[in-house]
């Protein structure tokens, strides 16, 4: 026992040292505080005139401060003025005037503060006249100039005017009648003098002291740096202008009977949050507290969901207890923190008459007693009497209660109240905090010469220097303040990320172990290889639940030669960096926490609108930059090639495949999703299985290397059969992964690839783009206007044929991508005119499907067709009609007799098939 006790003492000694009993603190403070600071640290005065019909102002003088307040009125309840000075510097003064006036319309009052340390030009003047129930004014710092608010003659509800600090921030809130004239901030923006945010992700993204997307306790290196106090506090949580008391949380559960959140298991000294907080204390760090607007103890209703209260020092940690519904005692940690004094009034008590800043170090001291059960010291912090606050002690949180007949009983009390002495105790920050306080408003990021602007630091949020709203980086090109009324934007120039850099990254990725490991092919996946137009192609066939091939994933590996081709991947990559692709991060799924998270990657959509999990802003192809159109062209070409190759493979090897999933005809792409990835951006597991989509999704990778992975979805039997419920909820391991390098094209074919599998892409470098094309089936869009929009936006502009992509011919020569589509090349050197295919396919579908009313949508090109029909075209384009297609075929094909037996629609389909597949006219006819 003896050794136990000494052990306990040793472990407690740290706590003792940093949570000294008040008498010790008082003594130490007296000894260490310089005289000058002592005299000005808490110079404060307060005048209260309760229920007086009229009174003149209290005048408070000290070296740095003059405050005058006056108020009169038939029923002025309370007028109080107080002031305190920053303990560290006499050049700061804070003036606070609060008025609560009665209902009488006669009441009026105001405050006027002059800081003697500054000349008249920097004087703080605030004059307020008003009446109503709540009117208050405060003017903490001296740079404000003059602010006057008059009005509310006969108003029902008074106005509130808050002038905050000297950095030209002002907030006006309040309501009054029409005659209330409130000066507007020059920019017309809502301003505060404290960091705040509309959602948690924005705060976590923008500041270093709170990055916990879930839970209220943010720690780094096992040290608590930030606490969020929101809903779910304990019943004894407490907030005033200086002191915050909160439970350490973290281990709560919902009580099945009462549905209330209760502390699940008892927290001990092994509880991590206790350990992290004691680390904070022993290292001498401050903690930043963030007030959530659902905190039931907040003295005022905060204006924002998350508001930074400031730096606090931990003064006490102790253990309380409550009884669960089986009457078992559950212990939990509580912490008391004290605001580290600043020049700023605590915004969360403005107008509440809070006087917590008036108490000085040593003025109030809680007595401490040694516990007879454990020999440790605990303070007497409750009105209900002293109890041991050490969770390991048998006397822990037992109060001696009078139960009548002169008898007493020791019990856990449900309701206890902190003593005012405890709440008014004050600690000297210089004794507890040993590090400079990290700024609450981080500096805006700037780019060093060697940086590119896409490093992960530039993806963080910022705190708007104008209104202090924590704002995420939503847009690729710049930051925009998320405060709706603030117009602040900020950008950091990008440095072009060169092809040499991409090659260097690629080389490293190929060498690096994780990248080598990236190639994983489970034995349930078949692999086929081939070569198409200079690309080495791997096709992975994915099985369905019965083993039949339900879809394929093909990767066309680009050589450096392909990449370097004129208008090829290298050119595209460099050009894209100089375009505004309108890339943005969009709100992603909520993980049970409040507010939205953003996707890691940035996206924008071109062509037909596409809801990629969330709706992405869409620009029609007619307004798309050339690189986007080239992307569609190249991907459409690749699609034709791959479907042809798969078709061939299936026939050659008599492979069983799910025809419902894998149609072996290509659909024309009418959409391209451009994705941008900064360093560390990813696209997490998802599927592209929207019902509107055709079976093929093709994607061109540009820039930094990445790894793509596929895994079967949870609830199917692919990979392994989930047996238990628990099993069903677990993610399965990937069955296929491979790297994607600059210029590579990945083609997923088969709707079941998305019904049964999901995929992710994790780039590993500084800057990557992906361009992913799909076919959005207009006939699946019920809303006529949306369908019309999809048809218009998804239409490739006339002249697209100039961008036709030809791949590489059989001799290995790289064809100029600028070449006109004027002749049909040998197989594998397909000439692709995607607009033709699109148009042709649409016609085919209209012919085959009478229920498809998409043909009713007026075609803007119709009026030009008569003219165009007059001559034999050398190529098909957006405006080509069926007769033009027929004419072109007639011109190209020698077998006129065969052709003459085809209907115009068949000719059109044939022409498109021919073009898509790179077949000669004779081959196509034979195929047909
Ligand atoms: O970045 C990539 O390559 C993947 C793109 C993707 O999965 C998508 O657009 O759906
Ligand atoms: Fe995808």
UniProtKB/TrEMBL annotation:
<feature type="compositionally biased region" description="Low complexity">
    <location>
        <begin position="35"/>
        <end position="47"/>
    </location>
</feature>
<protein>
    <recommendedName>
        <fullName>Fe2OG dioxygenase domain-containing protein</fullName>
    </recommendedName>
</protein>
<feature type="binding site">
    <location>
        <position position="677"/>
    </location>
    <ligand>
        <name>2-oxoglutarate</name>
    </ligand>
</feature>
<dbReference type="Pfam" id="PF13532">
    <property type="entry name" value="2OG-FeII_Oxy_2"/>
</dbReference>
<feature type="region of interest" description="Disordered">
    <location>
        <begin position="1"/>
        <end position="55"/>
    </location>
</feature>
<dbReference type="GO" id="GO:0006307">
    <property type="term" value="P:DNA alkylation repair"/>
</dbReference>
<dbReference type="GO" id="GO:0051747">
    <property type="term" value="F:cytosine C-5 DNA demethylase activity"/>
</dbReference>
<dbReference type="InterPro" id="IPR037151">
    <property type="entry name" value="AlkB-like_sf"/>
</dbReference>
<dbReference type="InterPro" id="IPR032852">
    <property type="entry name" value="ALKBH2"/>
</dbReference>
<feature type="region of interest" description="Disordered">
    <location>
        <begin position="166"/>
        <end position="189"/>
    </location>
</feature>
<dbReference type="GO" id="GO:0008198">
    <property type="term" value="F:ferrous iron binding"/>
</dbReference>
<feature type="domain" description="Fe2OG dioxygenase">
    <location>
        <begin position="668"/>
        <end position="777"/>
    </location>
</feature>
<dbReference type="InterPro" id="IPR005123">
    <property type="entry name" value="Oxoglu/Fe-dep_dioxygenase_dom"/>
</dbReference>
<dbReference type="GO" id="GO:0035516">
    <property type="term" value="F:broad specificity oxidative DNA demethylase activity"/>
</dbReference>
<dbReference type="InterPro" id="IPR027450">
    <property type="entry name" value="AlkB-like"/>
</dbReference>
<feature type="binding site">
    <location>
        <position position="686"/>
    </location>
    <ligand>
        <name>2-oxoglutarate</name>
    </ligand>
</feature>
<feature type="region of interest" description="Disordered">
    <location>
        <begin position="824"/>
        <end position="880"/>
    </location>
</feature>
């Amino acid at each position: 026992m003896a050794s136990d006790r000494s052990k306990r003492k040793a472990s407690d000694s740290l706590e003792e040292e940093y949570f000294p009993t008040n008498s010790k603190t008082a003594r130490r403070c007296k000894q260490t505080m310089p005289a000058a600071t002592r005299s000005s640290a808490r110079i404060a005065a307060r005048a209260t005139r309760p229920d007086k019909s009229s009174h003149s102002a209290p005048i408070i003088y000290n070296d740095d401060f003059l405050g005058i307040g006056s108020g009169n009125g038939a029923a002025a309840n309370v007028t109080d003025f107080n002031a305190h000075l920053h303990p560290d510097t006499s050049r700061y003064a804070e003036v606070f005037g609060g008025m609560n006036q009665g209902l009488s319309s006669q009441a009026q009052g105001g405050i006027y503060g002059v800081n003697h340390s500054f000349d008249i030009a920097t004087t703080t003047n605030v004059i307020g006249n008003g009446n109503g129930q709540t009117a208050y004014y405060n003017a903490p710092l001296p740079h404000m100039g003059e602010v006057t608010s008059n009005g509310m003659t006969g108003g029902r509800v008074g106005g509130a005017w808050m002038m905050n600090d000297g950095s030209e921030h002002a907030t006006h809130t309040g309501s009054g009648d029409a005659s209330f004239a409130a000066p507007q901030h020059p920019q017309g923006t809502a301003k505060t003098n404290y960091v705040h945010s509309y959602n948690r992700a924005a705060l976590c993204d923008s500041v270093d002291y709170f990055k916990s997307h879930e839970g209220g306790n943010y720690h780094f290196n096992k040290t608590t740096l930030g606490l969020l106090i929101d809903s779910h506090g304990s019943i004894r949580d407490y907030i005033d202008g200086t002191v915050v008391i909160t439970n350490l949380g973290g281990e709560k559960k919902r009580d099945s009977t009462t549905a209330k959140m209760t502390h699940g298991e008892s927290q001990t000294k092994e509880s991590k949050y206790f350990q992290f907080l004691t680390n904070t204390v022993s290292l001498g760090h401050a903690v930043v507290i963030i007030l959530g607007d659902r905190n039931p103890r907040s003295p005022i209703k905060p204006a924002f969901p998350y508001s930074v209260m400031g730096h606090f020092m931990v003064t006490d940690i102790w253990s309380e207890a409550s009884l669960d519904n089986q009457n078992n005692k559950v212990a939990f940690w509580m912490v008391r923190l004290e605001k580290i004094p600043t020049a700023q009034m605590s915004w969360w008590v403005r107008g509440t008459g809070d006087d917590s800043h008036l108490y000085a170090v040593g003025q109030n001291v809680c007595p401490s007693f040694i516990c007879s059960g454990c020999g440790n010291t605990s303070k007497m912090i409750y009105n209900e009497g002293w109890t041991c606050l050490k969770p390991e002690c048998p006397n822990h949180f037992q109060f001696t209660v009078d139960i009548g007949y002169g008898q007493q009983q020791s019990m856990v009390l449900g309701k206890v109240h902190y003593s005012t002495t405890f709440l008014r105790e004050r600690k000297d920050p210089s004794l507890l905090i040993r590090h400079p306080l990290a700024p609450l408003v981080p500096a805006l990021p700037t780019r060093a010469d060697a940086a590119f602007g896409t490093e992960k630091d530039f993806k963080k949020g910022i705190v708007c220097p104008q209104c202090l709203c924590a704002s995420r980086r939503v847009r690729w090109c710049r930051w925009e303040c998320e405060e709706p009324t603030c117009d602040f934007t900020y950008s950091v120039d990008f440095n072009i990320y060169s092809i040499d850099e991409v090659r260097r990254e690629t080389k490293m990725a190929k060498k690096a172990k994780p990248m080598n490991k990236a190639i994983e092919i489970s034995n349930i996946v078949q692999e086929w290889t081939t070569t198409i137009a200079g690309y080495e192609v791997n096709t992975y066939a994915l099985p369905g639940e019965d083993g039949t091939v339900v879809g394929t994933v093909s990767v066309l590996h680009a050589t450096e030669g392909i990449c370097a081709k004129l208008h090829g991947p290298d050119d595209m990559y460099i050009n894209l960096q100089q375009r505004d692709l309108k890339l943005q991060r969009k709100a992603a799924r909520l993980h049970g926490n409040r507010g939205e998270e953003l996707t890691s990657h940035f996206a924008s959509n071109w062509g037909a609108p596409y809801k990629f999990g969330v709706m992405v802003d869409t620009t029609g192809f007619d307004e798309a930059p050339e690189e986007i159109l080239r992307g569609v062209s190249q991907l459409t070409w690749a699609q034709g090639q791959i479907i042809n190759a798969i078709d061939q493979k299936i026939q050659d090897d008599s492979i069983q495949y799910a025809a419902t999933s894998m149609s072996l005809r290509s659909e024309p792409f009418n959409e391209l999703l451009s994705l941008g990835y900064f360093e560390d951006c990813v696209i997490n597991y998802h599927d592209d299985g929207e019902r509107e989509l055709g079976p093929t999704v093709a994607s061109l990778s540009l820039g930094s290397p990445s790894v793509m992975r596929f895994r079967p979805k949870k609830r199917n039997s692919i990979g392994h059969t989930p047996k238990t419920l628990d099993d069903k909820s677990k993610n399965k391991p990937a069955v296929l992964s491979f790297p994607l390098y600059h210029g590579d094209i990945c083609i997923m074919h088969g709707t079941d690839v998305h019904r049964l599998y999901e995929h992710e892409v994790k780039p590993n470098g500084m800057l990557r783009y992906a361009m992913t094309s799909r076919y959005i089936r207009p006939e699946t869009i019920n809303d006529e206007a949306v369908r019309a929009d999809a048809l218009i936006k998804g239409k490739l502009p006339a002249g697209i044929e100039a961008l036709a992509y030809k791949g590489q011919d059989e001799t290995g020569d790289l064809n100029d991508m600028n070449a006109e589509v004027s002749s049909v090349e040998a197989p594998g050197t397909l000439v692709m005119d995607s607009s033709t295919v699109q148009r042709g396919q649409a016609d085919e579908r209209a012919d085959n499907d009478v229920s498809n009313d998409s043909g009713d949508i007026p075609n803007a090109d119709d009026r030009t067709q008569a003219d165009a029909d007059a001559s034999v075209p050398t190529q098909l384009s957006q405006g080509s009609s069926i007769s033009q297609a027929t004419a072109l075929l007639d011109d190209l094909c020698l077998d006129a007799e065969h052709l003459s037996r085809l209907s115009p629609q068949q000719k059109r389909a044939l022409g498109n098939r021919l073009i898509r597949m790179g077949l000669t006219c004779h081959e196509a006819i034979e195929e047909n």
